[in-house]
DNA sequence: TCTGGGGTCCTAGGACCC
DNA sequence: TCTGGGGTCCTAGGACCC
């Protein structure tokens, strides 16, 4: 267990999308703004600190945000700018050390144990990062430093907005004890409520309770993580080479009774998005999962594990269709659906040319009649046309239908991008 | 007046194998 | 005539994160 110092840093851009909007348009500075959504619908993707003061949060329906904050300004996102500026901020971190683990568009862990001889102790490095991102990128960023990733992440949350918090080795318990349990990574609304039901509100109170009491409430994994945290035994290291384990796409739909053509159109659009991304990365996956959300808050998933990995749009579409109808039919004839999702997991790296050498005949859901070679040819020519003329040059017809009511295409591109 | 899209990880039960 | 234990894989659901 390393104990030299607080050499794990977590750097997190503050209210990222909203801060970018305020950077781009000075008239928005100092004002409550929401990125995405509107006063009548949609969802808020991010809120400025001025808006958060009214209780506006990311993920909230627009009409609710407007009610909480009548002077709220809704702005459309500049998603390409988020990509560019997020990358620029991460580039500053990589100047400090190559040991950077980016975990989202706007945050990353750094292990600076090899950099202190160059730049000074962690608090100096943290201050330097914050100054450089402010000066060179124009955005506020908060930094937490501690002996472990989890603690560094908690520290950066405590540092927000626009601050730096260093948890010195030996002071971890003191730091954690007064904090609300909801600040811990992995403790969301449900767990928080379960703990509150037991009278546990702070990390200090949680630490008093024996593991045998907490674990049945939270499950052994969460229980162990929390106990490791409060006993300073979090072993996780900064990992610079994370690989995706699933690739998926989803579409929210206006509430509707599922019709064959409609469902097929949406699923082939989603399958096309997923399969194209798999092929771009020379990946294929054995398990296909479909999720269906029903009106009235029900949700079902169906999955199917094939004997060979798939990356062909048509194969994926066919399997997805069967899975979706299995879930819909089980729900009963009155079911209305509000979302469809397709994802692929059990990913393996493979040259595209080796794929779909056809599923064995004993596979009860052996997809259709087009042989593997024909499917590869179709996908290959689509991929090439898109490479030359852009993504919208060719597409499955539903790709055009699927737009209605959704989020801007640039947002999907931002979300699906590799970190 | 019902709410986006991208993910990760965990759990529990059943099938199957040795 | 019926009883063990351990391991792996698959499926479905759920909590959580940005």
UniProtKB/TrEMBL annotation:
Record CDD domains: PolY_Pol_IV_kappa
Broad class of the protein's primary localization: cytoplasm
Reaction(s) catalysed by this chain's protein: DNA(n) + a 2'-deoxyribonucleoside 5'-triphosphate = DNA(n+1) + diphosphate
GO terms (BP aspect): DNA repair; DNA-templated DNA replication; error-prone translesion synthesis; SOS response
Cofactor(s) in the UniProt record: Mg(2+)
InterPro entries xrefs: DNA/RNA_pol_sf (IPR043502), DNA_pol_Y-fam_lit_finger_sf (IPR036775), DNA_pol_Y-fam_little_finger (IPR017961), DNA_polymerase-Y (IPR050116), DNApol_IV (IPR022880), PolY_HhH_motif (IPR024728), Rev_trsase/Diguanyl_cyclase (IPR043128), UmuC (IPR001126)
Gene Ontology cellular component annotations, sorted alphabetically: cytosol
Keyword list, A-Z: Cytoplasm, DNA damage, DNA repair, DNA replication, DNA-binding, DNA-directed DNA polymerase, Magnesium, Metal-binding, Mutator protein, Nucleotidyltransferase, Transferase
Binding residues annotated for Mg(2+), in chain numbering: 12, 106
Protein family according to the UniProt entry: Belongs to the DNA polymerase type-Y family.
UniProt subunit comment: Monomer.
Descriptive protein name: DNA polymerase IV
Organism of origin: Actinotalea ferrariae CF5-4
Gene name as annotated: dinB
């Amino acid at each position: 267990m390393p104990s030299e110092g607080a050499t794990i840093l977590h750097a997190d851009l503050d209210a990222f999308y909203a801060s970018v909007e305020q950077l781009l348009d000075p008239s928005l500075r100092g004002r409550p703004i929401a990125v995405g959504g509107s006063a009548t619908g949609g969802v808020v993707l991010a809120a400025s600190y001025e808006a958060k003061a009214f209780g506006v949060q990311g993920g909230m329906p627009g009409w609710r945000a407007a009610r909480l904050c009548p002077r709220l300004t809704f702005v459309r996102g500049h998603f390409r700018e988020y990509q560019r500026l997020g990358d620029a901020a991460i580039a500053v971190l990589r100047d400090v050390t190559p040991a950077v683990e980016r975990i989202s568009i706007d945050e990353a862990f750094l292990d600076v144990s090899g950099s202190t001889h160059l730049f000074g102790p962690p608090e100096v490095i943290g201050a330097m990062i914050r100054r450089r991102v402010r000066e060179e990128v124009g955005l506020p960023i908060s930094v937490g430093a501690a002996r472990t990733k989890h603690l560094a992440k908690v520290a950066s949350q405590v540092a927000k907005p626009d601050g730096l918090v260093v948890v010195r080795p030996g002071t971890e318990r003191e730091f954690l004890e007064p904090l609300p349990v909801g600040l811990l990574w992995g403790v969301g609304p449900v767990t928080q409520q379960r703990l509150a039901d037991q009278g546990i509100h702070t990390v200090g109170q949680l630490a008093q309770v024996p593991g045998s009491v907490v674990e049945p409430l939270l499950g052994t994994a969460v229980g162990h993580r929390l106990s490791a945290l409060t006993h300073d035994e979090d072993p996780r290291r900064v990992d610079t080479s994370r690989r995706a384990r699933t690739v998926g796409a989803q579409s929210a739909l206006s509430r509707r009774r599922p019709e064959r053509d409609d469902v097929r159109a949406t699923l082939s659009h989603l399958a096309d998005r997923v399969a194209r991304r798999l092929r771009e990365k020379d990946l294929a996956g054995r398990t296909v999962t479909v999720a269906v959300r029903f009106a009235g808050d029900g949700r079902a998933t169906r999955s199917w594990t094939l004997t060979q990995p798939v990356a062909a749009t048509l194969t994926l579409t066919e399997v997805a269709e069967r899975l979706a109808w299995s879930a819909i039919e089980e729900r009963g004839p009155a079911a209305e659906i509000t979302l469809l999702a397709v994802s692929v997991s059990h990913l393996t790296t493979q040259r595209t040319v080796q794929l779909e050498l056809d599923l064995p005949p004993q596979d009860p859901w052996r997809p259709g009649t087009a042989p593997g070679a024909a499917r590869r040819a179709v996908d290959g020519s689509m991929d090439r046309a898109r490479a030359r003329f852009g993504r919208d040059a060719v597409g499955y017809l539903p790709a055009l239908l699927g737009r209605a009511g959704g989020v801007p295409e640039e947002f999907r591109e931002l979300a699906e991008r590799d970190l």
